[in-house]
Amino acid sequence: MTLSAFFEAVGVRGFLHARRLGTADSLGLAADSPVVLASVVKVPLAYEFARQVAAGQLDPADRVHASAADRLGGTGSAGFADDVSYSLRDAALLALTVSDNTAADLLFDRVGVDNVRSLLAELGLTRTTVVGAPRDLLRTIIEDTSAGSPLRALDPLRTSATTPREMTTLLSAIWADDVGAPVREWMSAQVSWHRLTAGFPPEVAVAGKTGTMPGIRNEIGVATYPDGAAYAVAVFTAGGAETLRRPDIDRAIGAAARAAVGQLRS
């Protein structure tokens, strides 16, 4: 079964890149096509946060306050009924484990959007763009909806975007860097197991980060086998916009990821 067949079977377009960490071995499907980042943007955010902590520029115990004005709705503190405060390191934990948009906004405020862009440039990820924090993307959605215009947030040419190949490059950098250890830990604790993780057997450890918007379902992550071999995988899909709940597409993401890794292992 070809990689494209997994996506065609559920009526979406698929974009994928996989590489064995520490080697030049890789393969892909439309791996250099532009795709919407969605909440995958929280991975470079967390990595830049970890770098600033290691450099002594930020204290991970510093606290941020999430008020009603900060709450966007959704998971974690973004959907809380009451104000709450937590440390910067817990903001990063919330952003990666439960995709808390408010925690990501508050972390972006401290880390700086421009610094995340500088990190991407330093890594040579010239096709990865970050237009802003989650609240900035929500603002474009509100503006476009009010104007009756196509949503910029769903167009990789007008919103935060990347390519599958650039995301496995990012993962390779995080997994090769001692400073990336907390990012690896937070990604390993992600509560969403229905995409990449579901595609691999229980003995394979998967650390990942999802991204979801109407018609957009993504996940990037690293699958580590018992023999120590680790594989960075980035899977993005476009289509199936009629509902956010499409378990068939989620399963296709995991199945395609495992098939790609299987090809590399063979």
UniProtKB/TrEMBL annotation:
Pfam families: Beta-lactamase2. InterPro entries: Beta-lactam/transpept-like, Beta-lactam_cat, Beta-lactam_class-A. GO terms for molecular function: beta-lactamase activity. Residues 17-237 form the Beta-lactamase class A catalytic domain. One of its GO terms (biological process) is beta-lactam antibiotic catabolic process. Gene3D superfamilies: DD-peptidase/beta-lactamase superfamily (3.40.710.10). PANTHER family: BETA-LACTAMASE, BETA-LACTAMASE-TYPE TRANSPEPTIDASE FOLD CONTAINING PROTEIN. This is Beta-lactamase class A.
